[in-house]
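Before the break, one more example. Copy the sequence into your notebook; we will annotate it together after we see the structure.
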Amino acid sequence: MTAELVRGQNHPLDRTRVEIRVAAGGPVVAGVTLGDEQGRLSGVEAVAHPGAPRRTGIEVPRQAAAEHRIAVDLDALSAAVHRVSVLLALPTGIGGLTAFGAAAAPSVTVTGLDGTGIARYTITGLGAESAVVAVELYRRQGTWKVRAVGQGYADGLPAMLRDQGLPQAAELAAEIEEAVGRGQARAVPAPAPLAAGRSERPGAGPAAPPAQDRPSPAPATAADGPAPSGTGTGTGTGAGAGSAAGPGAGAKAAAGAKAGDLPPAPADGGPIDYRHPRRRSTPAPAAPAPSAARPAGTPPSAAGPTAPDGSPLPVAGDAAGWSMDERLYNQVWGMFEDLARSVAAYRSAADFAESRLEQELDRALADPRHRLGTAGEDARATARDKHATLVTQARAALDRDLAQLMAESEVVEPALPPAFARWDNPVWQGYHVPAERPMALRLGDLHLPEVLDLRIPMLVRLPLERGLWIDSGPDSYAHGGPGPERDIGRRELPGALTDGPPDESELRRLAMESAVAIAARLLAIHPAGDFAVQVIDPAGAAAPALAPLVESGALPAFPLPGAQGVTAVLEELTRRVELVQMAVRHRAADALPADLDTAEQLLIVHDFPHGFDDRALTRLRYLADEGPAVGVHLMLVADRAQSREYGPVLDPLWRSLLRITPVPDAHLADPWVGHAWTYEPPLAPKGSQVVRQVLGRLAEARKAS
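Here is what the structure looks like once it is written out:
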């Protein structure tokens, strides 16, 4: 399997002839530099670029493109070459991007010549940078390894070449730009959506949702904070809602989507297709021919399994991707986008029908001759009949799409790997500790009031680029969107909570259980020893919820209470972040102290900001800002309303985290089409021991390793 790397991580290469594949959200220039042990370049001849695409052992593409393949033969390189750095830069003058942060995060995959994946790195966290050192292949003690670098340069290609010790950096950058300009006519844009069939591999995400890795509109954005991380586009069996209300419905839905996402309205006034353009649905076959045209016993089309009515049956993993996990990930987010579009079309059609009814009633009442008598009653009855017809047609289209999505969900949900699966999925019964890092994590479920039975997994890409704030206060239940959404949350609370809203103590308990469930999932889906959890609990009130982590050894002991415990954990993690940052900056990961735990860390802070002084708060904000890039992630369990008492000093921290709730709540706003999605936390079924069982197997694997 392909190893998923994070910034600063390295991975051994088991072969010397490899191919480096680049996928970006727009045209980029790809190049390679050949450096010595310190990464310094001997001269311009040590750079392979579009103007000089061939160097000994290296060949790069000649033009800017959204996808590249770079051939590398490490055995052919000079003995003086110790570092092979892959450079990506945005071209100027061809109408493309000006900063990497404006498009989906680029990804780089090292493969064998047969396409077998070795290691992949998605370069997240880029903003104003227009050039980046993506990865480097380096020689250490006679063997070659690949390291995820992700070092960006806001000043572009000249600054990047200058940083590698090339005196002629400006001149070479100009030469590269000139070569790209000459090949402008051959520049390959980002892959366009296909009109039929399955789409090609989309830019790596969540999806999703989602602001980081954003090839498609965000899946869900906290209504009181910026967009969460995560997401990619989806592909799979789609559902599309045709508007039954005419132009008014299409105009409103199109206004809520990104420019260019929706196809133009048909000239003949026919229904508008709201399906995602990069998620292709297999069209239903034409009506079967009479029996005489197809003799009995003749097999149906071999295009795929079909239902008795001839419509295609959904298939789990029927999406673009380089692995089954990636195909399922893309299929889930495709289902999310299809549901968003279908419901947007229905709501838009219903709004159009309502506005049309009001206009026709106003016209009927405006004529004095129609205010009394049968003429007025007939006009009003006719207007109401038209309204009912439009709404019925819109609901029929929605029901048709929902039935297709429900059928797809029924085959996709059981096929999900542990990282994407609910705790009640049978996949956990056969759980074994993975050997590879996962690509994404399930944070819970999302649904809309039009179809309560359809739950879309809320997947976010890993590593997490944003921390989490689990809101444990009463406002986390009463917040949310429209009243009906809140009523849904009340009806679906688990167990004893269905009789009414939980009290404050119950919310705190559920919030900490949610935190432990997410932490346990992160531990379980990483290889043994690759992920660790630390906890700050100044009041010592989280002990019951933390018991599964302590009993399994995932947490060495219950956290030390008081200010002493806060200081000790923050100092340790701050030191780790600073050391790893320096190692990445100077490309010296092997020089890290032997006592430093390089496993990814999740810091759970319970009852924040209790026990925090100004110094501790400053350190926590530092970890929230700098930690994700080097593998330190933050999860706060706190009452947002109480934290406001500490003034505006906590506002930046609040805005930087993704707010989730311990009970179902409609607070995740989708800026793409304007929905308020109801979020459900990823708790295990009441009375289930699945979390303890999984942590126990993980403990056994750690002892055996």
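Residues 324-366 form the longest helix (43 residues). The CA atoms of residues 241 and 399 lie 9 Å apart. Try to locate both features in your own notes.
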